[in-house]
Amino acid sequence: MGFGGISIWQLLIVLVIVLLLFGTKRLRNLGGDLGGALKGFKKAMKDEDKEEEKEPERLEHEETDKPESKESVRDKEKQSRDK
């Protein structure tokens, strides 16, 4: 018995069928693409770790006008209704 009730002979038959359907060249390309994707993923994870270690850059704060208080907004609304 092999994996979950599948014998080695059944696995070999499936492997032969896959080879006949796709061919060795396509499977080789698929393996290369998968390896490249894993390599890129690992590199991205390492780059992300390096970015987390850096100190965050300081952001420049610009002064803006203070928001109006509720009373001043109400006064303006009353004035516009009275007109």
Characteristic key phrases:
elongated, mainly alpha, TatA/B/E, 2 helices, protein transport, 83 residues
Give structural notes.
- GO terms for molecular function: protein transmembrane transporter activity.
- Belongs to the TatA/E family.
- It is a single chain.
- The protein has 83 residues and is mainly α.
- 71% of the residues lie in helices and 0% in strands.
- The protein contains two helices and no strands.
- It has helices spanning 8-53, 70-82.
Mean pLDDT: 80
The 3D shape can be described as elongated
Question: Helical element count?
Answer: 2
| Number of DSSP-assigned strands | 0
Beta-strand portion reads under 5%
Alpha-carbon distance between the termini?
A: 91 Å
Q: How much helicity do the residues have? A: over 70%
Structural class: mainly alpha
Nearest-angstrom radius of gyration?
33 Å
Largest beta-sheet details: none
Order of helices and strands: HH
Model regions low in confidence, pLDDT < 50 over at least 5 residues: none
Family: Belongs to the TatA/E family.
Keywords: Cell membrane, Membrane, Protein transport, Translocation, Transmembrane, Transmembrane helix, Transport
Function: Part of the twin-arginine translocation (Tat) system that transports large folded proteins containing a characteristic twin-arginine motif in their signal peptide across membranes. TatA could form the protein-conducting channel of the Tat system.
Membrane topology: Single-pass membrane protein
